[in-house]
Amino acid sequence: MITSSRRSTITAAIAALATAPLLLTACGSGVSTDTAEQQGTGETVTIENCGQELTFDTTPARVVSLMPTQTELLLRLGLQDSIVAHAQTGVSPLPDELAQETDDIPVLSTDAPPTREDLLAAEPDLVVSPTSYEFTAEQGFASIDQLRDNGAEAYIATGGCADRRNTAEVTDVFTDIENIGTIMDAPDAADDLIADGKDRLAAVEEGIAGQTRPTVAQLFVEGNSVMAIGAGVEADIIKTAGGDNVFDPQDPQFAEFFAAEINPEEVISRNPEAIVFGVTGPEHEEQTRNYLQKTFPDVPAVKNDLLIAIPESDLHPGTLGNIGAVETIAERLYPDAF
Length: 338
What we know:
InterPro entries: ABC_Transporter_SBP, ABC_transptr_periplasmic_BD. The chain is of the alpha/beta class. Helices cover 35% and strands 17% of the residues. Strand 6, helix 5 (144-149) and strand 7 form a beta-alpha-beta unit.
């Protein structure tokens, strides 16, 4: 994530991707077909997540969320009583209608994943995270194995699995909702949340049907550094919203990582009709707009003021914000359709 997880993974991984170990080795995520029933039946639930099998003999009672986006998902599933701690709370605010529900929940960290000691001290039996980065032992975080040694399983958003990070899709969040609903014995709430999300995406699909797709560049600007986003759930958000991304997932610079640092001339040469950019807050949005307007005055996206700001939290894997980002971008690209 650009903030905490994304910023750390982008800046560190681009510099040292060749030597960075992958924490997990597969991208699939699903419910075992023969153990899909939860408590009340006495059956064990097994979930495949990022190439690992997560096994639950009982419903987790002590859940830790490692990002506000994952906290929101848990709250939307009605699981507030099971959350014993949450982390990276300064990365993004919760929706207003949910904010008070976390008032009494201990905070483990504000702008970075919690330390190994702090996370283990919360005595979780389930830890929910947007990416595998939050379990990087080299950064001082608790690893998957260390959590298991202390009786906890770690659930990573499907789109944040190491080997799926470049090919993640918006609809991966539905897999996460289904899996967490199964793990936490909340299948009805999960079904309702999935149905709502699918309805929202279907409305976008209907609105953009038959339209000519504008070209879009997706960027993250920090100071004078420009990152292009060409793969991952971020790129699928552009595609689902009806944009034609000028940075293709097949481009060599995105072969191993979803983002790449580029020169401004590369944006100019691709001449996008719209620019989508992630922001960490109002100040960052203003700074980025100023940079784009100053650096790319002759690019159609700037000339036509089609600069679309998206909260960075809405670009995290495994969040309902992915759907909100699709809606926001589609409405700006096709103002007459919505």
